[in-house]
Amino acid sequence: MSLTLLLLTTLLFQFKAAEGVEFDNNQFLIYNKVYHEARLTLFQDKSVGSYEHGLYKDQLWTLKPHPRQKGCYYLVNEEHPQYRLADHKHTLIAYSGHRYADQLFKLVDNNDGYYYIYNCYHTNDRIAKWGHENHKTGMYGKDKYPDQLWRLVPRFKANFFTDLVFHFDNRQGSTDIKREISVTTGVKRSSTETIRSKTTYSQSIEASLSGAIKMFNFGVTSKTEFSVELENSFSKTTESAWSKTEKITFTIPAGKNFKVMQHVVKFDGEFSADSCTLLTAIKIFESDTAEFDDPDKFIISSAGQ
Questions:
Q1: pLDDT at residue 54 above 80?
Q2: What is the mean pLDDT of the chain?
Q3: How far apart are CA 267 and CA 161, in angstroms?
Q4: Alpha carbon of 109 to those of 103, 148, 151: distances in Å?
Q5: pTM value?
Q6: SS3 34
Q7: Non-local CB neighbours of 250 within 8 Å, separated by 6+ positions
């Protein structure tokens, strides 16, 4: 007989950020194509430019959709959430006052992983970067050049896998065996660092989950399972309540190979302190052999089934 706790299965696949991206209410680091390390930034003096060195939350932008102008977004800064990008008289600025049409932007796919970011009011204007210096970032409305193209990297990437929680081979045993095992469900963070905004944090995770689910044929049950558990976790007022751990007693029948598996979604954050894990449903498997049948396709395969 053998007992194995908390082993990670190799059945893992990764949601690629360039595919299946959900824009609405998601957050992004926005990289220039030519100056590939440069990210759109709102500096402390509230000037808009780009920055090529360390990652900071003033480089993170939320795409808030306009309720009526389909495809047009407010680009809201995470560090300074009262500020939105604006194309004020063909100049790129950050603005914290009333909302006007020149604060709306749309993304036009270049079909190479990059986007033009057009203003929805000054319809020829695109965000551009024409030099290495931070301040050489603004609006441009004439000919197209590669330095007007931007790559949007989501705050989170979602990885789905099936975790082996518990395994006990009792095929040689003549009596049932009981084991008490701790099982955690909900959202667990990898850091104790304070989250600046739980609203944007949860919205970004939900958007990443939604985009990733669209990539794969999970079926209605799994989709609902992930979404409901995530919604339930974030409905709690305190972060400590986002997850719960219960002790469950399992009975391993005599003559059976027995294991318990759990669906898991790992959200890898561009900021390491953001990363977290969503733990959802468990399932018991029993077998007379070393192999286990999976008729319900509970185990997530590389094909997303």
A1: yes
A2: 91
A3: 11
A4: 20, 12, 10
A5: 0.87
A6: coil
A7: 166, 178, 179, 180, 181, 258, 260, 284
